[in-house]
Structures are given as C-alpha cells and as structure tokens.
Amino acid sequence: MRTDSRLIQMFVAVADSLSFTRAAETLHVAQPWLSSQIRKLESQLGFDLFIRDSRRVALSEQGKALRGPARAVMRSLDEFSICASMLRIREERPLLRIGLPPYSHLFAKRVALLERFAQLQPKIQIEIVLGWSPELVERVTAGSLDMAFVVGDVIDPALEYQLISHAPCTLCFRSDDPLAALDIVRSSDLRGRTILAFERGLNPPVHEQLFGAAQRAGAVLQVDHEMMSDVWLQHILSGDVIGLNFVRKPPAQLRDRLCSRPFADATDIALRLVRRRSAQQPAAELCWQVARGAGAANDSAKSAS
Length: 305
Prior knowledge:
single chain, alpha/beta, Arc Repressor Mutant, subunit A, D-Maltodextrin-Binding Protein, domain 2, 5-stranded mixed sheet, 12 strands, about 45% helix, about 20% strand, disordered C terminus
C-alpha cells in the first residue's frame, strides 16, 4: 500500500501538536478538512492513529509506532526538495539578494559562511545590499531581500533566524589612559568620559545595549560615523576619547599604543541570519542550509572541546 505524502505530513503535524486546530493553522488549511483527511488516512491503514475525546487528542499505540517513520519520510522529502533545487540551479543563473551591515566583514564566521556558499554554489549570483540592521530587517520582511545578516535581537513572528556569531563588548582607549590600570571597566568608571558612538536612530536597541548603561552613569556620547574602522582607531589615538568595540581587533602595529578592556555593563552582541518564514526561492534555501550546517559543525566542535 502506498500512502500520499501529503497525508503523512498532516499526520506528523497533528502528532507533534496533539491538536487538530494548531496543526491546521500550521498547515494553513481548515480544521474540518484536516480532520477528514486524517480519517481518510486511518481508513487506508485500517486502524486509528489518534484517540479523540471532548478534552484532548492523544496518539494511539499504532500512531506512536508510526510517528518516527512518518517524520523520517518528511525528512527524506525535504532532502529530495533540496537536491532538486540544486539540480535546477545547475541549469539556471539564480540571484540571491542578501543584506549586510557595513562592518559585518569583521565577523570572521560571516565571511567564512558566504565564502563557503560561493564555493559550493558558484552559479548563484549574490547581490549584496549594505544597510543598518533595522532597515535590512524591514527589507527582508517586505521581500526586497531574501535574507540578511543583522546585529542585535530580532523579534518578528514573520521571520526566523539563525545565530551566526556573538562577541563580547570591550572598550578601546590609548595605552596611557588611566583605565588601562583596570582589569574590567564598569559604567561608573566612565563618568565624564567621552565615548565614540553611532547615531541612536540607526539601531536604537543595539545603541541601548552598547551605550545605555555608560550614558546613564554620566558618560558623554560623541557621534562618530567611522565606527570600528581605521579612522575610528585614529580618532581614539588622537584624542581623549574611548571606543566601544565588539568585534574589531586593533592592527598589530597599533597594539602598543592602544589598550582594550572588557566592559562589564554591556551584554554580548549577536550576529544573526534572518529570513521570512514563508516559502523560499531555491538559492535562499540553499544558503540557509549552508548556514545551518556551519552552526551544527560549530556546536559539535564545542561539544568535543
């Protein structure tokens, strides 16, 4: 007996949620129709998959036995779809539109991920759009970008994300600065000091995450449009100012003139890859899978170390 893969997908959705209503929402179908399709599958199989009463839905013993094989079928179908996309790409010249923050090249894992993807899929054209994270998120949501690397938290039910990298916040200042005598700098140590910052409107949540505690403690923020660039380092060297850094390491030739210390009152900054939850075009799906594979490899390496 052969079973329609669509019916298997419906069975898995109900088995995972134990709710016909929630499963119908996930599958974007009407609940009565979903119930009728599950009845159709049960009729084909010759036994009940679920125990239904007025209060709950539970798997029958046969349903419990079939849940694992059904999930394996769905994984195989996903692999089939990815393979088909890769074969189709060989015959096409698809375009992947991806957004990047202007300083994202400083995240080594982001650079390695796109280089890996370009090696695996040389026929895919990659169109890069630079912008600040809130703007990139809006463009992904609107559909003008397939995906984007963004800095900071992403809270949007229409989007899904993968964590690519995260970095602690450090303060950068001249080696002769009194702060160099400290092992860790706290906001109270920055009262009256000038900190180079980007404009708050460019990314308000990350601005608060980086500079909020210091500003409330009495630090003075000075807008610097060259954040974490070589020019930014020169601004630190030439004046009595401090830079707040979460990814840039001073070049070797400046390390005797510059000093970095952990900043106790700013949490780690995260770099994420975001995309819409709706169906993806093949090039975007392949890039997402490469990112997921890189994340799994990193998790395995951490477990082994």
